[in-house]
Amino acid sequence: MSLTFTPIADPAAPLARRNPVAKLGAALAFSLPLILTLDPLTPALALTVELATVPLFGMRYPVLARRAWPLALAGAGVLVTMLLFAAERAGTPLFAVGPFQVTTGVLGTALALVLRVFAVALPGVIVFATTDPTDLADALVQNAKASPRFAIGALATFRLLPLLGQEWQMLTLARRARGVDAGRNPVTRLRLFAATAFALLVGAIRRGTRLAVAMDARGFDSGVPRTYARRQVFGIADAALLAGAAVLAGAILAVSVLTGVFRPVIG
After folding, report:
1. Alpha carbon 125 to chain centroid, angstroms
2. CA atoms within 13 A of residue 10's CA, in its CB half-sphere
């Protein structure tokens, strides 16, 4: 189990060096309008634009695929769930899976939802894969005027999450060294998994408590105005990135409306 939140892109790339708040805002401005429609064309166009901008963030497609693999699992889950448990089965029957009949209408709706999952989540994956967590926390406080308590707490969370995978491996090896092995018994494996997860939770709570006390002792919640070692500048190029993302999202929705495939969520 490996959890990493360090940047994996070329920091000198045109969009990778933009202000973290601008990149985060652009991702939200571009992906949120996709929630308004259920048609497959809108997320397909958005996904095409997102994949086309990947080189501008200094990322390679194989690296992005390794970072975004949970989206594939989520998409597969949505596809299987819709194919098996969709309430409406309009359209031409294609094939049957046991008592469940798969039709063209169900398949189209399922593919549209899978595309929406990718199109909505991929901008966030790209932003966090090309942004240093410390820079993001500094930018949230300096440019977005977020609470330092929230920003620093979020930064601490990002820094500590990778330790969960390492501790899980240590707990597993420690139990194996003491002769605790589940073997192939599913009940024993489930019990061992629950015990390891509980031990991991206890360790995380203890570490969080120690970190909170240490931060409080250093005056992180004293109310005194803070200074910043690294200034985060929000310039014209950053504003242009935000505006460009909003314009592209509006253009994609306009294309869907003009082609007659726009299917609003409400209405």
Report:
1. 5
2. 11
Length reported for the chain: 267
Residue 14, judged by CB atoms within 10 A of its CB (0-12, 13-18, 19+), counts as middle
Supply 179's token pair.
């002769």
Quote the pTM value.
0.77
Token code pair at residue 191: 């019990």
* Of 192, 174, 148, 138, residue with least CA distance to 24: 138
Short-list 143, 200, 135, 140, CA closest to 167: 200
Cα 119 from Cα 51, distance rounded (Å): 10
Give alpha helix (H) positions in 146-185. 148-177
Q: pLDDT tens across 209-221, in order?
A: 888 888 888 777 6
Mean pLDDT by 10 residues, the chain (267 residues): 58 88 92 84 91 91 85 84 71 68 75 88 88 88 85 80 81 79 73 85 87 81 74 91 93 91 76
Computed over every residue of the chain, the mean pLDDT equals 82
Nearest Cα to 244, choosing from 84, 27, 66, 67?
Answer: 27
Q: Give, for 97, the enclosing helix (H) or strand (E).
A: strand 93-97
For residue 178 the two structure tokens come to 């003491």
Burial of 46 (0-12, 13-18, 19+ CB in 10 A): buried
- State how far the Cα of 181 lies from the Cα of 162, in Å rounded to an integer: 25
